[in-house]
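step 3/5: co-fold with adenosine-3',5'-cyclic-monophosphate
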Amino acid sequence: MAVQRTLSIIKPDAVAKNVIGDIIRRFEENGLSVIATNMIHLSAEQAGRFYAVHAERPFYKDLCSFMSSGPVLAMCLEGKNAIALNRQLMGATNPKEAEEGTIRADHADSIDANAVHGSDSEENAAIEIDFFFSNLDINSRL
Ligand code: CMP
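step 4/5: write tokens
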């Protein structure tokens, strides 16, 4: 399995619940390393640019408003099969469908306030990491 990098965002709801440590613990216990972090309170415009791929979806406005409602913790994670592994640890987008023991099953309240975001492909991981980090901010731990 190839070593990959992926972008994880701990969303405003999970930051407000003070469960940053619990979420990072799950990543570390499953073989993912944090190689960059950035706590940032996005503006609605910045959230809109990050989620531009969803611009035509009916939930876009609410998504941008929610993602700019408080600080988020953006992280670059590194590890074997990091993209799929992160998504497995997060669980389904809608917490009602998330498998028991996943981050969203344990910490998400709704499909909007769903605790975490994770890149869905190598191509998007590269774009999303680039949105939050410069190369100088990233410290490979291989
Ligand atoms: P995320 O993985 O951050 O990607 C886009 C976000 O849009 C998603 O998590 C959800 O929080 C939010 N969202 C709201 N409604 C929907 C929906 N019907 N389908 C997918 N994502 C949605």
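step 5/5: annotate
The mean pLDDT is 98.
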